[in-house]
Amino acid sequence: MTETAAPDYHQMWAELGLDLPTHDALLQAVGSMYGDAYLTQANRPKGTDYLDFVLSEVHGLRIKELADFRKSGGKVFGTFCLYVPEEIIRAAGGWNVGLCAGAEFAYDQVEQIMPRNTCALIKSATGFKLAKVCPYFESSDLVIGETTCDGKKKAYELLGKMHNVWVMELPQMKRPEDLAMWKAEIRNLVKKAEETTGTTITAESLRAAITEVNDKRRALRRIAATCTADPAPISGKDRLLATQVAFYDDVPRFTQMMNALADELEQRVANGQGVAPKGAKRILVTGTPMALPNWKLHDIIEKSGAVVVAEEMCTGSRYYTKLVAEDGESVDAMLDDIAEKYLDINCACFTPNQGRIDDVIQMAKDYHADGVIDISLQFCGLYEMESHNVEQAVRDAGFPVLKITTDYSMEDVGQLSTRIEAFLEML
Ligand code: BJ8
Q: Cα 167 from chain centroid?
């Protein structure tokens, strides 16, 4: 068998202004983490080959596609949060990508401009920018932030000194007057997107974008639905990866590949074929998002013999469960539909946030979870504060809960494994 040499992207990375030696070291570290977490899994579905391929080209082929798109006049938008509607960016002819924020990087530089006790997600994104190792950031013509938590709000001011950043104002409640304000802000985003791409959104382009993004969510929902079966046909780690990849891959291609994976998983369920033996403990995780390449908790849980059957988080059900209505007839009606769908996301930055608690309990029932793990990134005031109410409600509904606060470092892996193993034994 002859091996084809991997393409060399150094020239492209240099053109983006990346720090090449540091970036090489990062890719090597992520590659070895991936190998250890993913390629050691038994009984993986064949369709996960696509995820392996995407990850092997995570800073290569996809970045080249973005570069080619930009050379042909296209604009790329970088985002950090679910509340930025990708339908609008796509309808204006742009592409959006999630930005790297899931690994500890250049914290020494980060802590010179922000407090040590900032959550890992914010420190990571800032570290990637300061160390010049995120080609998605450097490929973004505009980064769109949002006023969700205080940390991010202030981080966008700092990042705005280094990059073209624009921030959306998000309400903190979901009353009719908040929805009215949000609808107006969605229209500000339309203006900003049109001004950036030079393309006016039409009813046709918006309708097409809504359908395209809904199709992507439908494919992820099909994958998720197969995990109500025992044995689950796919690991939580692979399902999490699929959701992470959804934030930056080409939309029609990703949808097609995920539908093919869903076909395979449905067949596996019909055959009673799983990744872990039937009866393996089933865990629902909820909490702060797990940005690429953060696979830490899933890896620990699944290496302890359990299977993560669902994620109530932004890299999980909050991303794909709800769809934008598809019957809006005018641009205005469709923008209102988009505003309503997005305000219905249950993030802890809202008060009250009972919808999240209801979702966690409903998902624990639907996915036949044996237990729930509530995870907060350290120094995330929102999710840490909310966890008391979440845990109490989940316990009252009859599900055991384990609360974990962690960050991206590997120092607590041993301690977390011990706690998780004890929790699984108790179930
Ligand atoms: S919709 S969860 S992606 S804001 S972990 S940076 S909240 S201090 S990520 Fe989020 Fe949008 Fe909400 Fe989802 Fe702040 Fe907490 Fe850090 Fe966080």
A: 19
